[in-house]
Description:
With about 210 residues, the protein is an alpha+beta fold. It has helices at about 70-80, 90-105, 105-120, 125-150, 150-175, 205, and strands at about 15, 20-30, 35-45, 50-55, 65. Strands 4-3-2-1-5 form a 5-stranded antiparallel β-sheet. It is globular. The two termini are about 20 Å apart. The model is unreliable at about 175-180 and about 180-200 (pLDDT under 50).
Amino acid sequence: MAKPKTEFSLNQKIVYPSQGVGKITEIFKKEFxxxxxxxxxxxxxxxxxxVMVPVDKARAIGIREIVSPQEAKKALAHISQDFEPPxxxxxxxxxxxxxxxxKGTITDIxxxxxxxxxxSKVKELPILERKLYDxxxxxxxxxxxxxxxxxxxxxxxxxxxxxEPLGQKVEKKSTYADDEDEDEDEFDDGSSDKSDDDxxDxxDxxD
Length: 207
């Protein structure tokens, strides 16, 4: 089997939306279902984990390059803009934001952070949403830091400065109906952000 043309190169930093910012540490071939398949081996620093992703499926599952400095600045500007208040039904909110994370553009990730930050100013987020918010925020900070060549702590401060005025507006209004949020019994839907990639072989990505 001839080595395919790869979209990402060795040692390149990439974004794996459901996992975090990663680095291509190896491009190799391995037998799978009696066929030789080329894989990227990706190290995800935030979870100290290696995942293997078939080269020909990488783009389909959302893996992409780090955005340009211009796109990173646009994302920072976007996060402070007013938007339609999120639904008070936390399960619907969670499902919608999980889908955005799977799509994984920097705008999608920015929308998740903005939505859940705003909602947290109205009412404390359920555990699953809090995890989703923390993961999306970490991913956004890491990518912007790489794109702009900045320290992560400095980017986090910038992000907070953009979000805080939005949060202050929400705290002043506090006009949302929270009845639907009363049903906050936490459920384990098996959709933990890192549930399917705990094994180094990452079998789900090989299917």
